[in-house]
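Retry 2 of 3 after timeout on previous attempt. Resubmitting structure tokens to design endpoint.
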């Protein structure tokens, strides 16, 4: 049951915002952290009516402490250090669920295994992992981890949408150039 649960989104670009839209549609409370974005308003079309739903932007620590689910949508930190490690797992609610659709290495896999084994984290869904496409054996075989092959953008529809977006950006660029 997702209704009434809190989803914490780390990284609020396009994918993070689409995740927020789906979560709001499921009746979830959505909070977010992104060091580059001050506020987000999600537009939802329901029965031909546009609703604007502001997302509560919170600190990284508040997100870790209050979320029932955490979804990551960030690049790998510049220093190469995992964003989520032992210290961050300690701050989370017991029983939190984690989704990483960002990059392998954003979550320290040793810390994740420890958090799952201690039941601090009840389950994890990983679309990315260190050493893609060959995850560690303990990641593959852990009964509380679901893995997907990071091919969401490989659908025909996604490729068509990407092509359209690129074409529109090129047209916009050339329309702004004065001759």
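Retry 2 succeeded. Sequence:
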């Amino acid at each position: 049951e997702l209704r009434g649960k809190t989803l914490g989104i780390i990284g609020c670009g396009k994918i993070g915002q689409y995740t927020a839209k789906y979560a709001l549609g499921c009746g979830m409370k959505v909070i977010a952290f992104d060091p580059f974005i001050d506020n987000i308003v999600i537009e939802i079309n329901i029965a031909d009516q546009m609703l604007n739903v502001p997302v509560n932007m919170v600190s990284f620590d508040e997100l870790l402490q209050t979320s029932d689910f955490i979804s990551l949508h960030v690049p790998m930190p510049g220093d190469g250090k995992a964003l989520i490690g032992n210290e961050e797992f300690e701050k989370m609610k017991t029983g939190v669920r984690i989704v990483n659709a960002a990059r392998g290495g954003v979550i320290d896999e040793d810390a994740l295994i420890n958090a799952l084994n201690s039941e601090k984290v009840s389950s994890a869904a990983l679309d990315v992992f260190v050493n893609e496409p060959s995850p560690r054996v303990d990641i593959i075989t852990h009964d509380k981890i679901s893995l997907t092959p990071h091919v969401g953008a490989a659908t025909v529809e996604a490729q068509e949408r990407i092509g359209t977006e690129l074409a529109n950006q090129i047209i916009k660029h050339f329309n702004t150039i004065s001759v």
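Attempt log closed. The longest strand covers residues 49-57.
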